[in-house]
TrEMBL record:
It comes from the Bacteria. InterPro entries: RecG_C_sf, WH-like_DNA-bd_sf, WH_DNA-bd_sf. Signal peptide: none annotated. PANTHER family: GLPR-RELATED TRANSCRIPTIONAL REPRESSOR (PTHR30595), SCHLAFEN ALBA-2 DOMAIN-CONTAINING PROTEIN (PTHR30595:SF6). This is ATP-dependent DNA helicase RecG C-terminal domain-containing protein. Pfam families: HATPase_c_4.
Length: 150
């Protein structure tokens, strides 16, 4: 556990019948040990069988930060960001971040229209987000576009 994330490492590779894409999309569920899975289900340690990745993705759907999955030959690493890692943003900064999260790449003028800020206010908020290393600035002049840092 870290301040900004939780990392879960699972020994063992994916089963031969499951591709990495199917695993990451939560499309297929095959139990390694159906007997243990059934026991955990009956003891109410798990709610549903084989829905973990899909449920994680659904939980982070509206989140600014997304979980990361790393599938190795002999293990799987799941990195779950802490939901409140952007609590230090102001209300105005949050509005811009949400727009950029939804639309990916926007000019300052597009942000003005979407949020209803004036040019000077948008520029101030964008400058703060750049200082906080939350966004990236691409280009110069009127064609400058902003996007969330990945």
């Amino acid at each position: 556990m870290f301040d900004d994330r939780i990392e879960i490492s699972s020994p063992g590779s994916l089963l031969p019948d499951i591709s990495v894409e199917e695993y990451l999309n939560g499309q297929i569920s095959v139990f390694r040990n159906p007997i243990i899975s059934n026991i955990f289900f009956r003891l109410n340690y798990i709610e549903k069988l084989g829905t973990g990745i899909r449920r994680i993705n659904e939980a982070y759907h509206e989140s600014l930060v997304k979980p990361k999955y790393r599938v190795f030959e002999n293990s799987i690493l799941v990195i779950l960001p802490v939901f409140n890692s952007y609590l230090d943003l102001s209300e105005k900064e949050n509005e811009i971040v949400k727009c950029l999260n939804k639309h990916q790449l926007l000019t300052r003028n597009q942000l003005d229209k979407m949020i209803g800020f004036h040019k000077a206010k948008t520029n101030r908020v964008l400058k703060k987000l750049l200082e906080k290393d939350m966004i990236v600035k691409n280009g110069k002049g009127k064609t400058t576009k902003y996007q969330l840092k990945k």
